[in-house]
Amino acid sequence: MVIVPAGSIAMRDDRTANGPHYGNLDDIAWYRENSGGRSCVVGLKQPNLWGLHDMLGNVWEWCVDQYDPEVYGLYRVFRGGGWSDAERGCLATNRRRSHPTYAIDDLGFRLVRSRA
User: Fold this and answer.
1) Are 81 and 31 in contact (CB under 8 A)?
2) By its UniProt entry, which SUPFAM superfamilies does this protein fall under (predicted)?
3) Is there a smaller number of Cβ atoms within 10 Å at the N or the C end of the chain?
4) Which stretches of the chain are assigned E, i.e. beta strand?
């Protein structure tokens, strides 16, 4: 399993000139305007330049990073926006935090595997 640090280069795609997204949001992410009010099948949208799908939208991604351990203790970071968020919420730079026991229907994690 690959652990992707919050805000890592895998989430961003700085080699394009599309502002905060690595492409047109409708082409790369499930969010409030196109999700139908639920999480969607992974891999149906265009991948980033590293071949990773759904790095923005669909579900917020729990990250290994702690938010600010001195202030928030065990709170962890999640990034990327979810299916119920407006377009402005689907950014790799958009960071939220909560206790690791927090659960909601548009929050999860991503698994990455290589093609064999």
Assistant:
1) yes
2) C-type lectin-like
3) C
4) 60-66, 76-79, 95-98, 107-108
Domain range holding 110? 1-116
Residue 27: which residues within 8 A CB-CB, separation 6 or more?
45, 46
Q: End-to-end CA distance of the chain, in Å?
A: 14
- Rounded to an integer, what distance in angstroms lies between the CA atom of residue 93 and that of residue 73? 22
pTM score? 0.76
Under 8 Å between Cβ of 66 and 74: yes
Given a contact cutoff of 8 angstroms between Cβ atoms, the answer to whether 74 and 5 are in contact is no
52-70, pLDDT tens digit by residue?
Answer: 888 899 999 998 888 888 9
- pLDDT digit string, tens, across residues 41-54: 999 999 888 888 88
